[in-house]
Amino acid sequence: MDEYDEMFEIEDNFDDQFADELEVLAQMEGESEAVLALMSAFILLFLCVFRSPPAAALEISGFAEIPETPSRPLTAASPSAPRVLRRPPMEGGYVSVTDSSGSRVYLRQKEDAETQSRLVPDSHGALGLLTVPIRVLKEQEAERQVVEESQHAENEENEDPDDTEGRKSRLWVDRFSPRHYTELLSDDFTNRCLLKWLKLWDTVVFGRERKSRPARPDRQAANQNAFKPNQENQKPNRFKSKIEMTEELLEAELDRYERPRFKVALLSGPPGLGKTTLAHVIAKHAGYNVVEINASDDRSAEVFQKRIDTATQMKSVLGANERPNCLIIDEIDGAPAAAINILLAVLNRKDGHGGEAGAEAVKKKKKESILLRPIICICNDLYVPALRPLRQQAFLLTFPQTQPSRLTQRLAEVGFLLADLPAAGDIIRSCDILIFFLLPAVQFLHGRGLKQLDARTVQSVSVGQKDQSKGLFHLWQEIFQLPRMKRKRIGVGFEEAPGSGSGAQRFQHVLHLASSSGEYEKVSQGLYDNYLSMRVRDPSLLGVCEALEWLTFSDRLNQVILHEQNFSLMKYLPFLSVTFHFLFAHTSVPRITYPHSQHEASSRLLSCRNALSTMLAEIPASVRARLGHLSLTLDILTLLLDIICPKLRPVNPQLFSSREKEQLHELIDTMLAYNLSYRQDRTPEGQYIYVLEPAGPKPSRNHQQRLENIVKQTTVETWVRRVFLHSGLWTAPRPSEKCAVLAMGTAVGNSDVWFRFNEGMSNAVRRNVYIRELL
Amino acid sequence: MSLWLDKYRPTSLGKLDFHKEQAAQLKNLVQGGDFPHLLVYGPSGAGKKTRIMCLLRELYGPGVEKLRIEHQTIVAPSKKKIEINTIASNYHLEVNPSDAGNQDRVVIQELIKTVAQSQQIQSSTQRDFKVVLLTEVDRLTKDAQHALRRTMEKYMATCRIILCSTSTSKVIEPIRSRCLAVRVPLPSTEEVCSVLTSVCKKEGLLLPPELAKQICEKSGRNLRKALLMCEACRVQQYPFSADQDVPEPDWEVYLRDTANAIVSQQTPQRLLEVRGRIYELLIHCIPPDIIMKSLVKELLNNCDGQLKTEVANLAAYYEHRLQLGSKAIYHLEAFTAKFMAMYKKFMEDGLDAMMF
């Protein structure tokens, strides 16, 4: 039950805060029994006489009404005169009462003084129904408020004084942001874990001895506490596995500087859940002075280093309360990798001093260089590449969604009257449980003079709808998937969730999504790549035609927008998505692939173009003058490939007939003229083949040529003179293969040509192998 | 210079093999001394470029055949550098402005203007103008064409412009009206055959007339293609046989297969396959309008008379949109889908009619 240690401290805190009330309560519990009988009589009387309920409740306990009752001016009739009259009295005030059976009676009203005198006032003139007179209570309350306010002002110097104007102008988000641990809305477990981690630093920072683990066997004690049971009952079983895991992390031994094993806590979660608030509140709660670095600060490496050092190694001496710093690095996922590396270096700094530090680990305060202050990092996306190294060294805490019930409760605390609970639920849902969105929405409603929230208002005001774009995949999914029928919620005039229901709503929904995504180009690309694989029955292909019509339209639109800079047309682009939704949406979950095709095509086209232009660039001018780009691609190249693979007998070129020699000549001339050459490639089997650039069976111009190094002009010329020797063999194009691959010809019989045979890595085994030995 | 195409290309107007009266007219034009701007147009493989080179030779003599390639770098007002290759002799400059893509206007403005502005030095011995030859004018953007207008008028004294394009429809009216249009039609079948035979004779080969005819048919009277095919045939098998199969450009074969695929089945899945094939063609630098044209040609082979007009109409519509848009694949696919729908409906109607 160690984990509740902090809870108790919190409660201590709580006790401090509400000391006065608790005192009163305790007294009341003890002594009220004496007056209870009397009071209950009164209460009964009141209840049966007045149909209106007692005045507003005080939040302390169930006995809340009691202290107030005597202060009511109205009271029972005096015993002397007939209390209940059948008809209205002739003089004085009266109250008419109708009982449940319908008969009406009249009660005479009397002066207060009279009543009080009846009830034996004490020395102060009070009735004495309360052990502590109401006057005293009031005074105490006022005093307490004054003290609290002064404390408040002290604690948060930077905060505005709570004058009424200031209050009005402030956003509710600020005004009602939690200031104490108990006010935190986020998940209890997360809060506790973070607090506990922070407490692990106590040994180093405050020099406090850490409580030994089994120090708190008092589970019973915990259970006795009025605030405890619900937490006790829920938490352990609900978070069992999580607890165990995190527990382990937290229970890990302190290192030799008595620091916790994880020097950094990394909070992550979607925006608006109160991560920053939590960090601040907890750091303050644990007695630290908060130093925050966030994305608005310069986070280049040097500045970051400086700030970390200042924050972790210095201490404010001027402030009224000298508290150690706790560094909070907000929005760390946006920080440059260099900054994060610096942070890591700071974390691991002890390693450098490892040797000598071991002995004097006790006097760690002296050591300036090692990290002795807690650092809390906050991020939205835990999996940003830059954070990867940090993730391994940090105590990770992910934020779960805030429970709507807690939010509702909080709304009530904020002072907003909620007409019905569903309404609250609704507004919370529409705000997607993000406190940042919620409070402004409510404040907006409040500002419009609405004191009561009901479902209709919430629906009619489209406030708090996030304008935040979701991922492209989400969008495509929404477009290609029909919404599932949602359970109808209670209430008249309720609209269903966005996206479901009638065509008009779906239309609006998809339109909204598409226009908020903004990346129309990408979106339409994704639609184009995916729509044909959707499971839609369209035997006559009319839907497909329609869709393509829209695609071509949007293409034209894009063209006009870009060419004429006419951006007013942009607003028509998202309608493409709507069309696709109505044409292809299906109830089953679509399988959407990321659209690569266009990009792939364009990059391949580019490489083809480049090959072509390099080829063209080196073609001699005399040929070039008659050669257009187009004619080259359309006519010449493909046929050229046929032309340059003449059938040659696979024999020694010297044995070629004069005709064949001439052919070979021509071949080489052609290749030179068109800037073609063969590149020698080695196959995995160790054979050399000659490749005429990409040898694909596909359409025309895979064989885009321009090839390096083999049949270069010089080699060709030498061949023309005598024999072309390359590794001793003349490579003759093989007739069977269409072109591209020119394998080694078999060859040379009993010529003096030999292989130099290198075996292994050294020159040790080197001998000449004659061709005839191979044959 | 080993392809027959290059080897046996005529170099003077007198040696041209076909459209001889046009050659004579061009000769007269040169000798007349009042040489206008020219717009030479005609389908590819008809010999436009050859004719132009012959004309230049007629104008300037054999010096015009000493060509050099120049790499020019032009800095656009947006500080972007445009690199372009030009082919030049002492007397003329050949540019393909569409190499610069969207920036072709800059090429026209900077490059051509500077050339046009400079005077010929030895005007006594030479003609007092030089020639700028612009190829693939139909790929020129409208901006560039407008930039050309004034240049053509202003520097008439020092410069003539010869435009070479496959069709006049994409050349704006003001430019057309400034030029003498010279149409170079495709040679007739007989002319192609006679050219092939004479080339073969010069090579010392014997070409059977049947094969010549077949080659001519396969090449669509495109003389360039015909010569290449003939040479490929020669490589394949020398003593020619009359029924030898003539190699075709493989993109055409590929496109034919695609067309057959479209006709044989009309489903979204098939459309997806067709998309892949069209992508493949586009990747290999086959211009989308040519894909469209050849595809329609192949598809029409499978269509009935009545359907033919509709398909042609459809193709015209989508080709126009193709020119207006930038994503060719959308338009090609839209055409394919529409054709599929139409064809399917047609076939089903036909079946129904047969049943009753």
What portion of residues of chain A belong to β-strands? 5-15%
Write down the domain tally of chain B. 3
3D shape of chain B: globular
| CATH hierarchy, class of the largest domain in chain B | Alpha Beta
Helix content of chain A: 40-55%
Helical run tally of chain A: 31
Annotated CATH homologous superfamily of the largest domain in chain B:
P-loop containing nucleotide triphosphate hydrolases
**Rg of chain B (CA only):** 24 Å
Query: What is the H/E string of chain B?
Result: HHEHEEEHEHEHEHHHHHHHH
Q: Percent of residues of chain B in helical segments?
A: 40-55%
* Annotated CATH homologous superfamily of one domain in chain A: P-loop containing nucleotide triphosphate hydrolases
Structural class of chain A: alpha/beta
Query: How does the helix and strand content of chain B classify structurally?
Result: alpha/beta
Mean pLDDT of chain B: 87
Summarize the structure.
The complex is a heterodimer of chains A (775) and B (356). Chain A is α/β, with parallel strands linked by helices.
Give a written overview of the molecule:
Chain A: InterPro entries: AAA+_ATPase, ATPase_AAA_core, CTF18-RFC_complex, P-loop_NTPase. Chain A: It is found in: Nucleus. Chain A: Belongs to the activator 1 small subunits family. CTF18 subfamily. Chain A: Keywords: ATP-binding, Cell cycle, DNA replication, DNA-binding, Nucleotide-binding, Nucleus. The complex is a heterodimer of chains A (775) and B (356). Chain A starts with a helix and ends with a helix. The N terminus of chain A is likely disordered. In chain A, the strands form five sheets. In chain A, strands 5-6-7-4-8 form a five-stranded parallel β-sheet, with helices on both faces. A three-stranded antiparallel β-sheet of chain A has the order 1-3-2, with no helix packed on it. Helices cover 46% and strands 8% of the residues of chain A. Chain B is an alpha/beta fold and 356 residues long. Chain B has three domains: 180 residues, Rossmann fold (3-Layer(aba) Sandwich); 48 residues; 99 residues, Zinc Finger, Delta Prime, domain 3, CATH 1.20.272.10. A seven-stranded mixed β-sheet of chain B has the order 2-3-4-5-6-1-7, sandwiched between helices. The longest helix of chain B has 28 residues. Classes of the chains: A alpha/beta (775), B alpha/beta (356). Chains A and B meet through helix 24, helix 26, helix 27, helix 28 and helix 29 of A and helix 3, helix 9, helix 10, helix 11 and helix 13 of B.
